[in-house]
Amino acid sequence: MLLVLCVDLDDDLGRKTGFSTPVIGREDVEEAAVALATADPEDSDVNVVFQGLHIYDDLDARDESVEVAVVTGLEGSDVKANRKVGDEVDTVLASLTTGEDVTALLVTDGAQDESVVPIIRSRVPIDGVRRVVVRQAQNLESMYYTMKQVLADPETRGTVLIPIGILLLVYPLALLGSLFNLPGLMLGVTSALLGLYLISRGLGLGEHLDETVERVRLSLYAGRMTLIAYVVAATLMVLGGVSGLDTIETVQGETGGSVPVALAAFVYGSIQWIAAAGITTSLGQITDEYIAGSLELRYLNAPFYVIAMAIVLHAVSAFFLDRAGIPYLATALTGGTLLGIVSTLTFAVAESRLAEESRRAEGA
User: Does Glycosyltransferase appear among the keywords (predicted)?
Assistant: First the structure.
């Protein structure tokens, strides 16, 4: 049996005529169609129901097994409307007294109603979909529905509308630039904005930026010291960079210098600031781990490692700049190495003893 199923997703039939849905059978469907046409002659669902009756009459004249029904959804809610259509299709199928396999032919008035196709297909095989629109407005509703979907989806809206908006700014910015004799600058700014947007979309920078902002927000609310430590460390890194550049200028003014010498000068002038930034971030992380109750003793190695590396790099760079001799270099290398070893062994032994005491306490 072929079931001609007329779909009214926004329930114009029920709202405008008071008919209880689903409507099943040739006579009842015709009565419903006349009632809807009388209530609102301009409603596109009128065409859907009459088209369903036309298909029914054509197939019935050929002595084919056919039935016609109208199912409706709800106004203003796609999810609930789809569910209601599915429930009404179940009601229609349960009312069919036939031993034949049932297939469906959907009759709709546009792409919006066709969104329920997967719902109906899960209940009954679909032989086809017949879309009914006014000839003078062919594809108009489908175009409208597509544009409505594009504008309703934030992801698609940002992808499509923002580049178009930037391109539309070209002309007014060019006019503005001509007033100040800077047309090239205005066009360059517009092109740069469009290029940066496309690059950010292609690399997914927007998602990463949203994640970073969310982490910062959660850190602020959670009172995490790491956030403050990172801000202070970034400031110290900037100061270290400035100090390193000043040292390069001083060294080049004294000796000229090559690339290795310039690199050694930068390290010599900035290492103390970089070390302070490393110690700050490590102490902030240690504080957060302690507050969270997940601190392990080996985490305390981090500040000592930073100090050890800073000592070694400072000595090596000073030696390259002839500001320190071999004794200082040897002492710094030995001291930095011993500091790292002592720190590692101390916290490793302490951690193992605490673990052993914990096991003994559990055994007792």
Answer: no
Q: What six digits make up the tokens of 61?
A: 């004249």
Written as six digits, the tokens of 207 are: 């998602």
Distance of alpha carbon 168 from alpha carbon 162, whole angstroms: 10
- Alpha carbon distance 83, 72 (integer Å): 10
Buried b (16+ CB within 10 A) or exposed e, 100-117: eebebbbbbbbbbbbbbe
Count the alpha carbons within 13 Å of 154 in the hemisphere toward its beta carbon: 1
Tokens, residue 269: 């002038």
Nearest Cα to 2, choosing from 86, 90, 122, 93? 93
pLDDT, tens digit, for every residue of 120-132? 999 999 988 888 8
Q: Order of strands across the sheet with 66-72?
A: 23-24, 66-72, 2-8, 103-108, 126-131
Structure pTM? Answer: 0.43
Distances (CA, A) of 1 to 66, 158, 318: 5, 47, 93
